[in-house]
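Chapter summary example.
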Amino acid sequence: MAEVMAEHRFPCDTCGTDMRFDPGADQLICDYCGNTEVIGGGSAHPIREQDFRAAIRAELPKADLEETRTVGCENCGATVEYDPTIHAADCPFCGTPFVADTGVSRHIKPRGVLPFALTEKQARDALKGWLGRLWFAPSGVQEYARKGQRLDGIYVPYWTFDADTKSSYAGQRGTVYYETKSVVRDGKRQNVRVAKVRWQSVSGRVARFFDDVLVLASRALPKRYTDGLAPWDLSPLEPYRVEYLAGFRAEAYSIELEDAFGEARGHMDRMIERDVRFDIGGDRQRVGQVDTDIRDLTFKHILLPVWLAAYKYRGKSFRFVVNGRTGKVQGERPYSPIKIAIAVVVGLVIAVIVGFVAAQQG
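The structure predicted for these 362 residues follows.
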């Protein structure tokens, strides 16, 4: 289950109010008095990769691990963490109220964070524009955006994988050639060219270094929505600092490292097969056996920024997500039976009118 770590707090030196990270700026800001505090300096230190096999053997240093206290949502299965003083809250993933019931889990610490670049208002404007294009959506959905309902800023967990691969393969190269064949068409004999393929057995080796193969580490949101937020530019990735989380929440991973690598390996295998086909050459290719040696396999646990809104319609939760860097929107699309019925009636009326006009002209 997903886990969301509690908001990190940084009291303002001037007035004592909690400061928050200012999206698009490398600073903390106090909304009460306007005081700012520069974060800075993070990008000067490279983000260190971690050894995959050491993690699988549970041999990571204790400093690379952390414990989080969690609260479960019975509706969507998410597990979130709140301040111990909070006894009831709404789930940020589906909007369902729940009563706090904490437990403790142990996880690998994040290594990097991609800070929010869009403010909540910018994300809301992006969502409003997206919802405005959904004509068949219930009016309440557009009204939800127009009322300026609050969006939750959440850092979603991902794994990245680096690997140096060398693959040997066996296959066949196909060369297309043509033969002339006599056929009868419409009672006449004709000569036509027929394509055929001459196959030749081949073998070889290809090599590829994979850098930052990205895999979602959460089950709290539908994967098709988070995949739809791609592409993610990871070049501005910063070393993990809790200051970037001030005023936001960060979800802990629910997909374990080894399971995530299974998905990453599938991506790698598809890329390697593409390389093999290119190396085989010719007009057609048949890939038989591919043996891949993976070396220097490393990983990172990183956090990517997402603005999240949960809307309830007729007892069902609909969720919308906004890429906190680009403003790209994905989400569930509720349909209004009334609007669909109106569209059908209008379509029938137009069809009758067109038919009547055509009959009069005839």
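To summarize the output: Residues 338-343 have pLDDT under 50 and may be disordered.
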